[in-house]
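seq as requested:
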Amino acid sequence: MTTPTFHMVDGAPTPTGPFCHAAEIDGWVFLTGQTPLDPDDPTASIPDGIEAQTHLVLQHLKTVLSELGLGLEHVVRVGVYLTHLEEDFAQFNQVYKSYFPEGSLPARTCVGVSSLVRGPRVEVDCVARRPA
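C-alpha cells:
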C-alpha cells in the first residue's frame, strides 16, 4: 500500500474542523462531506431551502474533484445527510440527479440526522476512483 495524500483545495470552503478536503490512496479519493458554506466567507449565511443548499454542496464537490483532475463521472459512492429527511428527500433527489449523466448514478446512502455543523439542511460526501 502506498502512503496517503491529503489534499487542501483552493476555492472550496474552509473545513469546519481539523480535516482535509480529500484523502487519496491507491487511486481511491475520499472527499470530506461538503455543506452549503460560502467558500469566500465561511461566516456568511447559509442559503435558504434544500434546493439552493443542494446545488451549492454539489458545486463544492465538483470544485474539489476538479482540482484533483476528476469529475462527478468518477464518483462511485455518495453519502447524503439530511436534517429534514421526509420533507427534503424528493427535492434533494431532483437536484442531485441533474448532476449525473443518466444511467451513471453512483451507489448512495441517504440518512436523516438531527443536526449538522452551522445548521444546514444537507451534507454530502463521496468516494471517487481514478481511471486505471
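The chain has one domain: 5-129.
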